[in-house]
Amino acid sequence: xxxxxxxxxxxxxxxxxxxxxxxxxxxxxxxxxxxxxxxxxxxxxxxxxxxxxxxxxxxxxxxxxxxxxxxxxxxxxxxxxxxxxxxxxxxxxxxxxxxxxxxxxxxxxxxxxxxxxxxxxxxxxxxxxxxxxxxxxxxxxxxxxxxxxxxxxxxxxxxxxxxxxxxxxxxxxxxxxxxxxxxxxxxxxxxxxxx
Length: 195
Prior knowledge:
By secondary structure, the chain is of the alpha+beta class. It has two domains: 5-65 and 165-194, Alpha-Beta Plaits; 70-162, Alpha-Beta Plaits (2-Layer Sandwich). Helices cover 20% and strands 27% of the residues. The chain is built from four helices and eleven strands; from the N terminus they run βββαβαββββαβββα. The strands form two sheets. Strands 1, 2, 3, 4, 7, 8, 9, 10 and 11 form a nine-stranded mixed sheet that branches. Strands 5-6 form a two-stranded antiparallel sheet. The two termini are 23 Å apart. 27% of the residues are buried.
C-alpha cells in the first residue's frame, strides 16, 4: 500500500478537522485527497505547517509525546522580552502545574516576511511587539501561548514553520502539496533516529 503524506499551510481561523463547523472553515474546504487526516493539530487561531497522512502508524508517532519530535514556531508577542524572560522559556516554565521541557528560543531581529493574516492582530499604539522563534519537542495543548503568557508576554500571532525536516517553503496560506519520495524517506529516517 502506498501512503500519502501532505503538508498544508493552514490559514488563520481554519479548524484542524474535516467536520464542517459554524463560523469556521475546516480542512474539508481545501480539496485534500480522501482518507488523509491531520497528524497533530493547530488551533483555529494558529497558522502554519500541518501534516496530513493516511499512514496511521506514522501519524501516531508524530503526535505521541514520547518521541519528542521538533516543531518550530514564529511567535509575535506583546512587548520585547528580556534575555532573562527568554532564558525562562528555554529552561522550561510551569503551565498547568507541570514544567515544560527545555526549548530553543531566540528573539528575531526583524519581523519575518509573512502574508497578512485574514483578521489583523489587535493593535495597541502604546504597546510594542516582538517576534521570537521557539523550537519545542513536546506538544501540549496551546503550549506556546501558555508559555509566553507565563513570562508576561501574551501571544498575538503564532505560526508553525517546521516539523522536523519539513518547512513551509513556497507554500502560501491555504496551499498544500504532497511530499516527494526523498522528503518522506528523510522524515522516516529522522523518526527512527528519535525513536
